[in-house]
Specification:
Blueprint (H helix, E strand, L loop, with lengths): L4 E7 L3 E8 L4 E8 L11 E2 L1 H16 L8 E8 L5 E4 L9 E2 L7 H9 L3 H8 L8 H11 L3 H6 L3 E4 L1 H9 L6 E3 H4 L5 E2 L4 E2 L1 H7 L8 E3 L2 E6 L11 E7 H8 L8 E5 L3 E8 L10 E8 L2 E10 L3 H9 L10 H6 L8 E3 L17 E3 L7 H27 L6 E5 L5 H11 L3 E4 L4 H14 L5 H7 L2 E5 L5 H18 L3
Parallel strand pairs: 1-5, 5-14, 9-12, 15-21, 21-22
Antiparallel strand pairs: 1-2, 2-3, 4-7, 6-8, 10-11, 13-14, 15-16, 16-18, 17-18, 19-20, 22-23
Helix pairs in contact: 1-6, 9-14, 10-12, 12-13
Pfam families: FGGY_C (PF02782), FGGY_N (PF00370)
Catalytic activity: glycerol + ATP = sn-glycerol 3-phosphate + ADP + H(+)
Protein name: Glycerol kinase
Length: about 500
């Protein structure tokens, strides 16, 4: 560990954060700003690209103003919400459409056509991903199909496509650098994760010109330097880009094959480290790139759950049965059990392990005795059951038994959920001392490239547990509850 700081941008679905992190992995200062969500039609979700960039620039200035006197900032790192799709004009940097967010389902029809055309196995074989609106490729095709003249402009090299990392990098460098990293490229449905290149066959199928795609570089890499834009100083090295879930895997110190983490957010991403050997999945997981470091890429298994934390937001904002999601833990714990009530939050279909785009949410087991506490508890339990489904599949696919789960993200602070998660998995669940693990993971990558940290072993040694939750549930009860959950899910499925 050396002296200096890393400036980490963590651009998420509901807000942006900028953190100043020192060589002991401590957060020295922090700034946060929410971003507006747009819902122009049912199932559609959009963001304003310029609002994201200008918001991040303001946060950077706020944190820079609080940098300790004499402190040296070694580099800037970026981690981001993945799959969210942006297009902008190469000559001016002007966005040509709102950002289509990963949650957006507008490209369901495109996915159905591709599946009906027999392309699903081809996309999975090359990208490791199922054909689903979650990923960037069909979102980008939708934009090119809908905006008159855009595809022709893209073919002439006048248009850029990128995920949030590329958009921020472009703006931070004053339009000089157009690039992404392995982790973000692997979420597009366009990148062959085994050949490590944009796939010409898939681009042809979707009608996407290669000229609009960014260069793909290692996650830890000197991408360029900041320009004097938005009140920022010029010359600050930008030394890491990485998607938020992969950044959390790195920040959790999951460097050995079989180590697994769950990031509980709006949705939940479970990711298992698979090492440098390419992996494939045939049972509902995504095979993906974890990161690129020096001359090596790491692979991972990922289980994507569309709706977890968003379930509790719906109970608060949609049904109005809870005022503060933070109170859900105490409310759920007041009940001795769930009384047979299950909530399947298939609000936008179900992702891993089902990948059913048409599944819809249901609540089962309602009686006259059912109260608000039952629904709140069912919402929390649904998160844990979905995680169990993915963990079971990861063990089957990898052949590695899961000995423990590292948990991060907002819902990792929910005591009831963490205990129930340990019970339903029958393995310990550990919450790290550092809560901002995605930002920390990106900072570690930048720090490795600039000498702030020297090795993965040094980084792994920084990881500390804040609290561990141990299984307390009888096996018969655990399997009965999980079986009843699976019965409820079966009622929601359409395929």
């Amino acid at each position: 560990m050396s002296e200096g700081f890393i400036l980490a941008i963590d651009q998420g679905t509901t807000g942006s954060k900028v953190l100043l992190i020192d060589g002991q992995a401590r957060i020295v200062s922090r700034a946060y700003g929410e971003i507006q969500q747009y819902y122009p039609e049912n199932g559609w979700v959009e963001h304003d690209p310029m609002a994201i960039w200008l918001g991040v620039a303001d946060l950077l200035q706020e944190v820079l103003a609080k940098t300790p006197a004499g402190g040296s900032i070694r580099a800037l790192a970026i981690t981001n919400q993945r799959e969210t799709t942006l297009v902008w004009e190469r000559g001016t940097g002007r966005p040509l459409y709102r950002a289509i967010v990963w949650q957006c389902r507008r490209s369901v029809g495109i996915c159905k056509e591709l599946i009906a055309g027999g392309y699903e196995a081809l996309f999975r074989r090359k990208t490791g991903l199922p054909l689903d609106p979650y990923f960037s490729g069909t979102k980008l095709k939708w934009i090119l199909d809908q905006v008159p003249g855009l595809r022709a402009r893209a073919q002439r090299g006048e248009v850029c496509f990128g995920t949030i990392d590329s958009w921020l990098l472009w703006n931070l460098t004053g339009g000089k650098v157009f690039a992404t990293d392995y982790s973000n490229a692997s979420r597009t449905l366009l990148y062959n994760i085994y050949d490590l290149d944009w796939d010409e066959e898939l681009l042809d199928i979707l009608g996407i010109p290669r000229a609009m795609l960014p260069a793909v570089l290692p996650s830890a890499h000197r991408y360029g330097e900041t320009a004097a834009v938005g009140g920022l100083p010029a010359g600050l090295p930008i030394a890491a880009l990485i998607g938020d879930s992969q950044a959390a895997l790195f920040g959790e110190g999951c460097f050995e094959p079989g180590m697994i983490k769950a990031t509980y957010g709006t949705g939940t991403s479970l990711m298992m480290q698979a090492g440098s050997c390419p992996v494939r999945s045939s049972q509902g997981l995504a095979a993906t790139l974890a990161w690129g470091l020096r001359d090596e890429v790491n692979y991972a298994y990922e289980g994507i759950i569309n709706v977890t934390g968003a379930t509790m937001q719906w109970l608060r904002d949609g049904l109005g049965i809870i005022d503060d999601v933070a109170a859900s833990s105490a409310i759920a714990a007041q009940l001795p059990g769930n009384d047979g009530v299950y909530l399947v939050p298939a609000f936008v279909g179900l992702a891993a392990p089902y990948w059913d785009m048409e599944a819809r949410g249901i609540i089962t087991g309602l009686t006259r005795a059912t109260g608000r506490g039952h629904l709140i508890r069912a919402g929390l339990e649904a998160i844990a059951y979905q995680v169990r489904e993915v963990v079971d599949l990861m063990q089957a696919e990898s052949g590695i038994g899961v000995a423990a789960l590292r948990a991060d993200g907002g819902a990792a602070g929910n005591e009831f959920l963490m205990q129930f998660q340990a019970d339903i998995l029958n393995v310990p669940v550990t919450r790290p001392h550092a809560r901002e693990v995605s930002a920390l993971g990106a900072a570690y990558l930048a720090g490795l490239g600039t000498g702030l940290w020297r090795s993965l072993a040094e980084i792994a040694g920084n990881w500390r547990a804040e609290r561990s939750f141990y299984p307390q549930m009888a096996a018969a009860v655990r399997e009965r509850l999980f079986g009843e959950w699976r019965e409820a899910v079966a009622r929601a499925l359409t395929r």
